Queue: 3 jobs
Job 1
Amino acid sequence: EGLKLLTGLDRHEEIQLEDRRLRAVSLPDKTLEEWIDLALSNRVEFKQVEADLAARRALVQAKRASKKPLIFAGIAGSIALSPNRDRLDNPHVFDPFNYAAISPLVGMHWQWEEDAQPARVAQEQAELDALVHKASFARKGIPFQVTEQYHYVQAKHTSMLAMKKSAQSARRWMIASYTDFEAGLEEAEKILTAMQAYVLAYAEYLKIVNDYNNHVSRLNSVSGVYE
């Protein structure tokens, strides 16, 4: 029920296992440097930090610019035309129904707050510095996570191969002991000992396979590769 809830399946839907036998996944063929580059380009949180940094830098620049005067220039014009009215050609009388006017405009807006503006700039700069520190931690922390999981995968793969050989040797011992017992050359106690050794070795092998598969999955996860 918990798996259905996490995967969004209907509680009455039956879950079928893709493979009933535990098998080791293929060893990833990428180098450690390739995994790190993949993580730095794929990890969502790293992209988010970079976007936040750009926004924070722009906000700091905007706060610094707010203490400067805003100077603007433009052109304003107006025109009115009434063909059915007589036109007044008197420079001393304004005719609101027949006229044309245009004029350049120059202005300045300056919101001066001597103490408040530096405080706002300092606050935004402090938040930017905190985000820079967070980004620096991400640049170091993400490669560390990838490196850790990469070496775990390599170590587990080596252990898995060694344990597989051990389990195969124990299986051959068990088969040889049973054959000797059938031929009357071995006691039953020897068969039980060989069988116990094989069961323990194979169980340990399956445990290592499971650990190895989990670490490969974690390596993909910390690298931003979701399959």
Job 2
Amino acid sequence: MFIGREKELSKLNEIYQRKSSSYTAIYGRRRIGKTEIVRHFAKEKKVKLFLEFTGEYNSPIHYQLANFINRLERSLSFSYREKIGSWSQAFILLESKLDEVFLGDGEKIVLFFDEMPWLDSDNSHFFSSMSYFWNTYCEKREDIMLVVCGSSASYMLNRVVNNQGPNHNRLTDIIPLFPFDLKETKEMLNEMGFRLSDMAIVETFMTFGGVAKYLSYLNPQWTLKQNIQKLCFEYGGMLVDEYENLFISLFGLGGHHQYIIDILVSKWSGFTQSEIMKRLKTTASMKKPLEELVVSGFVSKEYKFGQKSRDIVYRLQDPFSYFHSKWIKGVNSNILLHNDNYWQEMSSTASYNSWKGFAFENICHIHLKNIKKALGISGVLTQSNYWSSKSDDKSKKGAQIDLLIKHIKSNDIEIIECKYYSGEFTISKKYRDEIIDKMNTFNEQTNHRYNLRVIFITSNGIKHNAHYNDICQNNFSIEILFTTV
């Protein structure tokens, strides 16, 4: 079963059709489907010669080389008896065997090095040998499609994508892989045999995000609550220890990445870099790990309205990290041992219902393109911002807008309000007054330059009561988050 990835598959097909060799790096978080997309592409394309070499975690170089030779022998039907002692020799052998391959017009040899960081262990010289192989052999041919990928985001970004050494500017293509959106998540769950409402799929997304591997663990014979219980709150559950393993595999040991995430989960609206440094009690710049988290899809960065570079807020957007921090982390093992219905109880609490409201707002942030499409402004150049204002009067609360859409070439702004309720959302007089006060404060601080529209995104619609027209210019339900963009 293979779902989605139309844009990435189209890109791979375009690369394959070129009349020159290519060198492509694919990167993304652990369990996101990097290996699967390359295999699926090769299968659908009916690639005649697809050579896949996979690194083995923590294996010494002689094991890695033995695996490489074995794979080469099986794929090209030959036997090699001489000893290979280095990656340089291994690539020389690969060159000699590829020289014997003759393909038809328009066909290519696809070389896929999976888990490249594991191949490039200390003193293995894999990377330099492969770079030499590309520079001196592949580039001179027109029929080689070299693809590399790995789960270690730090390695792929620093060593491959942004390399300043012998591999600098050698890549022809870069393909980042991000989690599924709601539409792709729904497609995958349907293929697995689930028949869920859009609201149930949204709640599934709140827990697992759009990570294909996490979704594949779900069993359609169980309810969503039963699935979460078995995967996250029982001994042997596939996701009980996933959070810790996730950041080690992506960024290695000794980095600040997981500490940064632990800080960001404490506040839905995010923190500036200086605030993060203060909480980490360090003077070291967090720019590099923050950028790696952004590029990997865990974190988004947003600018305060009216400012271009200062006051960048880094906001966690990974649903699973939010869920783990709030509901899995720190749960007493004795409680889990003696309560098979732990999640059934927790998911019925007021705390969980409140949490879902924030989780839904995060999902709306992730699906901003869908919201723009619903508003009919997909082709309009915009930027998303946050805005906040502190009151000089200590007895009054400040005002804050977590998501606004600013039209770059006009003075139009949409203020997005996200509401997650089991029934219709009702605008109370108190809430109406809060929104009006917020808009008045914004207008005062921006000299009334902007045309404001308040847009509601709700789980089950909004009641058209006496206060509706006072503050609401348009409203949409969650169906818009499932559209194709």
Job 3
Amino acid sequence: MFVFFPSNPTLNLQAEDDSAELSVSELLERANSNLIRSDNDPILTGGDIAIGSEDERNADPCTSRGCMWGKNADGKVYVPYYITNHFSDREKAIITRGLESFSSFSCIRFRPSRSSDRDWLSIESQKGGCLYHGTVQHELLHALGFNHEQTRSDRDNHIKVLLQNVQSGMQHNFNKIATLNQGTPYDYNSVMQYHKYAFSKNNQPTMVPIPNANVSFGNAKEMSRNDKARLNTLYKCCECQHEHVIQNKYTCTHVFNIEFGPNPPLCCFTVTEEAFSDVLTDDQRLPDQQKMQP
């Protein structure tokens, strides 16, 4: 589970077992249902979001009140973290891989915390079974300000919630939130979308997609393209960092491989081929008919 506070949010990750075939949402629900909680523990909402009180929520949609992680002068967003000593080397490697994955498609950079940091993530271990690459990404997205897909403000246009099938006391997990959707469509494949039987009391679906009830959803094992696009938009990862960048007129092309490696981010701008004519190799050049147009 994850709690987002202004100072030191805690990310509790449970050890990996034999559940590699389950989706992220299935892993999280099963893991957190096994938690033994005390009266002093924070409230758990959405199955995996811990909050200190009903008045505290993660960053979406309170960005206007400074709930986002700040951007550095170099255009990167550095998020300090601390991994407790409860994890094995293998488990720490899984967590580190999840942390580092964000640098391949966004301006987010997770770094070890320092004594001077006011805010940081505390990654802790509890019993359960959610220490996988996809679940690490899911919880880190909460830390960065994102809620579950099924809580989107426009969700009623895309899924129907069947509260009659929801466990008693769990109905609040399906409340809608005034989310910032960053101009992206509802995403059945989002790593933040819970599966159709989430919190079911009778093995019947608690959510069905509409208008096509046969659409598969809630099966993600890692972040989708829309997850990445929303992250980049929320944190303005595509702001102009190069004199040749042209904003808001083009879409991204593989030219970004030059600066961002093999996985170019989903951005709000691109550069022209001419701007990099002196560094492009022949196999990187676009045929004339594929060059971007305003």
